[in-house]
Amino acid sequence: MSKILIAYYSRKGQNYVNGAIKNLAKGNTEIIAEMIQRVVGGELFEIDTVKNYPVDYTECTEIAKLEIRQKARPELKNYLPSLDAYEKIFLGYPIWWSIPPMAVSTFLERYDFSGKKIFPFATHEGSGLGGSVNYIKKICPTAEVFDGLAIHGAEASSASAQVERWLADKK
User: Fold this and answer.
1) Whether the predicted model's global pTM rises above the 0.85 cut
2) Between 102-110 and 132-139, two packed helices, what is the crossing angle to 10 degrees?
């Protein structure tokens, strides 16, 4: 069995859920990452920024939009020494304006993904995967990037059957 990494960025706290701002104790993407780990095993790695985003959802979205426009690469709190030990990488993120948060770009640009298999999964509030899979393919041209899984964020905690179906051929 190949070694598996489940790397994810997730936002807890104020989030947009079914048309309203709600406070989440755990981010939706983290919930899905943990479901994936229960099915395929592997190591969890949280992609987390040194500088915290504002707690206020609206303020956070303004910062996120600015980062996208500036092609920012926020510094991460932790990095893995390398990805050499991993063949399969499940990469999770919320969709922010059709792509992953810029912190995911920081993570992707840090490592050599040659020969790696990347399985994207995203949480969203209506946009599905957006353009995120093609975005990842551009950053990681030497990796094999597979079709991803999109989970409506409000349904993350009840998505285990959907996650298991997606993972059926990826173990």
Assistant:
1) yes
2) 30
